[in-house]
Amino acid sequence: MAIDYDVLKEIKERADIVDIISYFLPSVQKKGRNYVCICPFHDDHKPSMQISKEHQTFRCFVDNIGGDVFTFVQKYEKCTFEESVRKVAEIIGYDDPRLHKKTYQKPVDTDLVPVYDCITELQKFYKYCLITDEGKIARDYLEKRQLSADQQAKFGLGYSLSDGKRTIEYLKQKGFSFKNIEDTGIALLQTSGMSDNNAGRLIFPIFDKSGQVVGFSARKMTSGDDAPKYVNSPETRIFNKRKVLYNFNNAKQTVKHDGYIYLVEGFMDVFALDSIGITSCVALMSTKLTNDHIDELRKLNVEVRVCLDGDRPGQEAMMQIISQLNEARIHARYVSQAGELRDPDEILKQDGPEALKAYVNSLVDPFDFIIAYYESTSPLSSNEDKKKVINHFVPMISRLKSSLDADNYIYKLEKVTGFSAQAIRNLVEKYKSGQKIEKVNNKTDVIVEHKGKGVPRELRRLEFAESMVVEQMMVDKEAVIFFEEKIKYFYNETYRVLANFLVDFVHNYPDAPITPSALIDIVSLSNVNNKEEVVNLLTSLSFKVSTIKYSPEALKDCEKIITEERTKVYERNNLLKAFEGKSVQEQARLMDEYIKRTTKNGQ
Asked: Tell me, which fold does domain 248-374 have in CATH?
């Protein structure tokens, strides 16, 4: 934890949320017990954000986001939680040495120190070799590709001498062992000894997010042989391509100011965007977008602008990325220009900077990109094609928080497919009420309807009972103890995470009152995956806790419901798992057995 919780409490005691939000927004006005203002997080025309002075929280009732004074500044300034704390402290004139202590960093494995030292020295050697007489072949190539000297220095480009043994000799003279050199990933073992696998190539160093070189990509400078154009560092103890985005170490310096980050395919595309002043740009380095990459992008809390090649493989990769970013709830737009098949580097070289600027600013939302993709790959001429498009969008629309956004997408689908907006809306509502999307032949999305209407009754009862227990836990510590001893865990993930925080809070701060504002800070300092959902739940509760009364009888009733319905839910889930891979007849037999069993048991 970078900032002590006690410091957060001291700052919050002095920082009134109404004053802090008013510092950023001029539209704050008193309305009844609370305050209202235009929400800065969506296109708001009527004051839809409420601020509770009593509970020191804010909430927008349109996009359903909220939090306390720190999370408001974090969202508004697009900064980390720790940076928002320091910003609030600065506004109110508060200072404390604990605010300035360095963020904890995981210590480096001491065994890896000589490897990092070796690869750092190696990169310095490559940079020096670029300016030697032999390095002229690489300098001429870079000049032809219009990479300036400043860019070459910024990205640490270099050259590896054609006699690969000289690289090894240099590192040995610097005191590094053959084991250290092997661990960098450049060692090529030959009968005559160890040599540099990158020999005779232009060097693109690869840095981790802290700016430490961890690997290389090396391009050959001569033609006429069968050697691959690029040689990339293998996976090593310090380099894992799944975890590294090229140029992240540079991009993170400007991304907060810009409010966006471009995601491109390779080094040359990064250099091309850098040439036109776009420094917030990272590349995938010929790999797919991984969960590790997504985690890094999510932490930036800015718009991701995806710009892959306009050819078929690039567009298919964009479709996959849309699904990944949408699932991760990362706001993204996509570069799309009809008929443009070139990559950014080619556009820059052939048409110049202004053409590239126009291209990378041709941004569309996921919906419009997918529509364009389907129209370009298989024109929507048949009902089946149109149904595929609609079924692709149903889950996406169902996850939208804004009904206005949902209506906008539905009416666009109506225009493109010819199906009525009401028919599409009905599909969305059916999906929301418990249906799911399954894959047919790994290509076509179809809606699978389950027996029964709406959310299963036991899920409705279970979620309602769990929500009642959470409310009781927020108003009395006895309810927290009851949960810990009798109920132990919730089925709903958001309630489950919040309940665990409440249990920890009561144990760690036995004399402190339970308040939504205090819990929001603790959750914000944590690493839980659904942090935003928990903060939004706490914010929602902050506007109603004053009306909730502690009731031991209600807790016991809820415990009974939870015990009963949790059993039913797990039985139902087991039934659905048993359906997998079974014939229709076998599924019917299993369903019959389930109905008889549950009816007999009074379920």
From this structure: Dna Topoisomerase Vi A Subunit; Chain: A, domain 2 (3.40.1360)
